[in-house]
Write a structure and sequence with these properties.
Layout: E1 7-11, E2 17-22, E3 27-31, E4 35-38, E5 42-48, H1 58-70, E6 76-82, E7 88-93, E8 98-104, E9 111-115, E10 119-123, E11 127-132, H2 136-142, E12 147-152, E13 156-162, E14 165-178, E15 182-195, H3 199-204, E16 210-223, H4 227-237, H5 239-245
Antiparallel strand pairs: 1-2, 2-7, 3-6, 3-10, 4-7, 5-6, 8-13, 9-12, 9-15, 10-13, 11-12, 14-16, 15-16
Helix pairs in contact: 4-5
Length: 249
């Protein structure tokens, strides 16, 4: 299924939103709760699955839902369609400060792998699934880098990142980064999770036990402030909040 062709405009700086312009009959799929506003003519419907395979049977839909449950995402997506006679816009924003990265999937090999909570919205026809790291043992301890989302299609998709986003182009090099700082990658990229170093560095280094390692040829998007790091700093700076999160009196 070919993706719908949608136009867009990203507004703001530190707390961005994306306005998607739909022609009559066009649809954009978004995570539940991401919509900010919509103009006249836009109607929405909550559905199971991403709608990339309209002829998918009930078992196929249940399988897709099961995969989304593994990522911690909602089992539903919301489809926003322009049912009016002229162009109309619908806007989406993420739940915490950061940047929105537009992805022209047709120029990225029609596949992008991203962190499980970074997907914001995409043109109807985009397939949203999951992928795992190859080393399951390291993955279970590696935290954020273990389960990743995979976006496939030839239209526009939008992912969200915390803080500043850096785009790197790998040409046979190897890049190592904190698992939480990885937003996504596209191209012929080999992705793995490895131990951060020796026992002393892992225990006292403060950089986490595992790091993401990417090598090959393609694009990599990196975020300066993953939400997990922001949440940890907020909890650490508020003892009362920290005790409440731990269930203490």
């Amino acid at each position: 299924m070919r993706c719908h062709e949608v136009d867009y405009e990203i507004r703001g700086h530190d707390m961005q939103l994306v306005e998607v312009e739909l022609d009559p009959g066009e649809t954009v799929v978004a995570e539940a709760g991401a919509m900010t506003f919509m103009e006249e003519g836009i109607n929405f419907e909550t559905r199971m699955g991403d709608g990339s395979e309209p002829d998918q049977g009930i078992m196929g839909k249940l399988f897709s839902v099961g995969k989304r449950m593994l990522t911690g995402e909602s089992v539903f997506t919301t489809h926003f369609s322009n049912e009016g006679s002229g162009k109309s816009r619908v806007a989406f924003s993420a739940p915490y400060p950061g940047s929105i990265v537009p992805l022209d999937m047709s120029k990225l090999g029609e596949k992008v792998v991203c962190q499980k909570d970074s997907f914001l919205c995409a043109a109807l026809g985009t397939k949203i699934s999951i992928t795992f790291t190859r080393k399951l043992g390291a993955g279970f301890f590696g935290g954020e880098g273990f389960i990743l989302q995979q976006l496939e299609g030839d239209g526009m998709a939008f992912i969200h990142a915390g803080g500043t986003v850096v785009e790197r182009e790998l040409n046979g090099e190897t890049l190592r980064l904190d698992t939480g700082c990885l937003v996504g990658f596209a191209g012929d990229i080999n992705y793995d999770i490895q131990a951060a170093g020796g026992l002393k560095s892992m225990v006292f280094g403060g950089e986490g036990l595992f790091m993401a390692t990417l090598s090959g040829h393609g694009k990599v998007w990196i975020q300066s402030l993953p939400f997990s790091r922001l949440a940890d700093r907020i909890i650490a700076s508020s003892p009362a909040l920290g005790r409440s999160m731990k269930g203490e009196d």
